[in-house]
Amino acid sequence: MGVNWMIKKALTIAGSDSGSGAGIEADLKTFCSFGVYGLVAITAITAQNTYEIREIRELDAKIVREQIIAVAEDFGVDAAKTGMLYSGEIIKEVRKVVKDYQFPLVVDPVMLSKTNTLLLKEDAIEKLENLFKISTLITPNINEAEFLSSKKITNLDDAIEVAKTLFEKYKTNILIKGGHLKGEAIDILYNGELKLFKSQRVSGCTHGTGCSFSAAITACLAKGEELEEAIKKAKDFIIKSIRNSYRIGKKYCPVNSLSILEEKAKRWETYRELKESVKELISLNPLHLIPEVGSNFVYSLPYPYNKDINDVAGVEGRIVKTKRRVVPVGDIDFGVSDHLARAILTYMEFYPEVRSCLNIKYSEKTIEKAKKYFKVSFYDRRKEPEDVKKREGATIPWGVREALKFGKVDIIYHLGDYGKEPMILIFGKNPKEVLEKLRLLI
Ligand SMILES: Nc1ncnc2c1ncn2[C@@H]1O[C@H](COP(=O)(O)OP(=O)(O)O)[C@@H](O)[C@H]1O
Ligand SMILES: Cc1ncc(COP(=O)(O)O)c(N)n1
């Protein structure tokens, strides 16, 4: 009907996690990140946080079935996944209803939570194995693969052997996730042929990685992508979701499965705000405050997206002065500032809410004025330790750290060194605030 074809729909059949790190909550966030419309059939409700599962209430198998039929008949389902199915009765019912539909089905054989609570009743395993046989893909982690094969996995070769065993047993695509092995995060796909998906191991929160990963594969399958392409995209997604997570809760903090959406939005917002303020700076035309080496005006993405200089927007080629005018040399872009980007990233290690910075020409008069209105600090480049001097790009972070030893400040200056121009840096929460401070110094 109408524009129904314009968005793909993915269904998750899983348990609810009240902490929203795993389960249907994680799956919905993931579907959303991939631009797929998410549908749900809830199997159980867990009273859960980052350190324990306090209670589990299993839902009646009939209401699980009715949820699936209700959404499938109306929206249509382009791909589905299962997570925590909990009981043999629920699994039996799910199998009965999904086998009549044609959609790809990813089965994440969730058995145990990170906090060590059983999410599958012990007598349900045989029913789960029946479900594997009608699936497109199963995604056991190392512990689940060990349980299903009754073999110990201590390294990649063991995991490959087990993937082959499981393929012989269930005759479906097997993806063993390597999150729990040491070293690189390597996932193994076996379907008669072997394919490894490798990525670096990143640090961050991991509660809900398995759920979000299988949901990402499902979303890509819903969009009609081939399985290997879907796994590749899910892997890129899960790395970002771990790296860009917020350390919330007391123990196993949740992955940020909305991070790819949020980061894009923040990039646009950051770019727009800086662009506006650079325009305003140009119209102020503060010729006498532009240093010989030029100024830059930078604005970093907020925490947790402020990882390196590519996450800081600035003016390409800096802002320079001609005879009468202050002019930006190039466009606003990310990763185009080096010195000032390092300064703001270092400042954010201490005060993450301070995201913008502008450098202006040093003069005693300007510093005197600044001291009237602001907290001012400085560092002495001549005191820079030899080992810092030798390290490329280490001077500014060292200087900012030195200056912040006196607490949060609006302005940091230094008096230069042999061949280095003295400089004043103005800091603020955003470019607008930096400009307000600049106005008082003109
Ligand atoms: N620290 C990490 N760095 C990079 N990838 C990881 C990390 N931890 C898990 N992964 C990846 O996340 C996905 C989920 O894996 P895993 O954590 O093993 O599943 P589960 O949550 O079911 O135990 C896999 O693609 C795995 O390789
Ligand atoms: C409802 C539900 N589903 C799945 C998991 C597994 O996730 P994790 O292994 O991160 O605990 C969970 N804890 N809760």
Automatic annotation (TrEMBL):
It comes from the Archaea. It is an enzyme of class 2 (transferase). GO terms for cellular component: cytosol. GO terms for molecular function: ATP binding; hydroxymethylpyrimidine kinase activity; phosphomethylpyrimidine kinase activity; thiamine-phosphate diphosphorylase activity. Keywords: ATP-binding, Kinase, Multifunctional enzyme, Nucleotide-binding, Thiamine biosynthesis, Transferase. GO terms for biological process: thiamine biosynthetic process. Residues 17-256 form the Pyridoxamine kinase/Phosphomethylpyrimidine kinase domain. Residues 273-439 form the Thiamine-phosphate synthase ThiN domain. Its EC number is 2.5.1.3, 2.7.1.49, 2.7.4.7. InterPro entries: Aldolase_II/adducin_N_sf, HMP/HMP-P_kinase_dom, PM/HMP-P_kinase-1, Ribokinase-like, ThiN. Pathway: Cofactor biosynthesis; thiamine diphosphate biosynthesis; 4-amino-2-methyl-5-diphosphomethylpyrimidine from 5-amino-1-(5-phospho-D-ribosyl)imidazole; Cofactor biosynthesis; thiamine diphosphate biosynthesis; thiamine phosphate from 4-amino-2-methyl-5-diphosphomethylpyrimidine and 4-methyl-5-(2-phosphoethyl)-thiazole: step 1/1. It catalyses: 4-amino-5-hydroxymethyl-2-methylpyrimidine + ATP = 4-amino-2-methyl-5-(phosphooxymethyl)pyrimidine + ADP + H(+); 4-amino-2-methyl-5-(phosphooxymethyl)pyrimidine + ATP = 4-amino-2-methyl-5-(diphosphooxymethyl)pyrimidine + ADP; 2-(2-carboxy-4-methylthiazol-5-yl)ethyl phosphate + 4-amino-2-methyl-5-(diphosphooxymethyl)pyrimidine + 2 H(+) = thiamine phosphate + CO2 + diphosphate; 4-methyl-5-(2-phosphooxyethyl)-thiazole + 4-amino-2-methyl-5-(diphosphooxymethyl)pyrimidine + H(+) = thiamine phosphate + diphosphate. Pfam families: Phos_pyr_kin (PF08543), ThiN (PF10120). CDD domains: HMPP_kinase. In the N-terminal section; belongs to the ThiD family. In the C-terminal section; belongs to the ThiN family. Condenses 4-methyl-5-(beta-hydroxyethyl)thiazole monophosphate (THZ-P) and 4-amino-5-hydroxymethyl pyrimidine pyrophosphate (HMP-PP) to form thiamine monophosphate (TMP). Catalyzes the phosphorylation of hydroxymethylpyrimidine phosphate (HMP-P) to HMP-PP, and of HMP to HMP-P. This is Bifunctional thiamine biosynthesis protein ThiDN. It comes from Methanocaldococcus infernus (strain DSM 11812 / JCM 15783 / ME). The lineage of its organism: Archaea, Methanobacteriati, Methanobacteriota, Methanomada group, Methanococci.
